[in-house]
Q: What sequence folds into this?
């Protein structure tokens, strides 16, 4: 994993340099979120089926649908790896982490252990990176949260618009010019509800 030089300026403890050379064990997803290295186990079947159902509805002819793609958030000690990055096919660079200004939308599917990261930490990071749309798909609460209109800087960055769509309802993604059928999105069994967003 590589980092742009902009991150070095905001990473006073050298975590970025350590992260560059870090090789995670097989099956482990690793991200740098505001100077903190976060490791997660591979996603479960509910997560993977939701991702498959979503990707199938995004036209490949227009959108690059990139999974486990490192994202470069300029000015942030962060290198998140969203569950899905959607980029206009003509805007995809040839290599390296994907600069956040090129991204149209990022998607995170909430896992049993990622609720706070997805709803709070990454919400702020993606807003700071001016990612136009951040979609949180939540199999715990059986809904999706579409966040748009990023504003602010650093940890104070946030999205000014938030729309919640229950699983089973049509999910409008105006930024992509389509609506997503969520009727086959599954939920986790036996997981305690949370209070987000």
A:
């Amino acid at each position: 994993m590589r980092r742009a030089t902009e991150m070095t300026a905001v990473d006073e403890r050298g975590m970025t340099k350590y992260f560059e050379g870090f090789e995670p064990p097989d099956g482990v997803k690793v991200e740098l979120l505001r100077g903190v290295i976060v490791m997660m186990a591979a996603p479960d079947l509910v997560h993977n089926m939701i991702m498959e159902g979503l990707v199938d509805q995004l036209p490949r002819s227009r959108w690059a649908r990139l999974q486990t793609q490192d994202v470069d958030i300029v000015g942030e000690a962060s290198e998140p790896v969203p569950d899905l990055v959607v980029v206009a096919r003509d805007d995809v660079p040839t290599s390296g982490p994907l600069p956040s200004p090129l991204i149209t939308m990022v998607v995170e599917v909430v896992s049993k252990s990622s609720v706070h990261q997805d709803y709070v930490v990454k919400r702020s990071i993606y807003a700071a990176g001016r990612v136009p749309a951040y979609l949180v798909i939540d199999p715990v609460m059986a809904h999706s949260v579409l966040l748009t209109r990023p504003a602010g800087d650093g940890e104070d960055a946030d999205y000014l618009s938030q729309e919640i769509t229950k699983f089973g309802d049509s999910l409008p993604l105006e930024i992509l010019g389509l609506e997503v059928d969520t009727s086959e999105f599954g939920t986790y069994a036996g997981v305690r509800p949370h209070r987000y967003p």
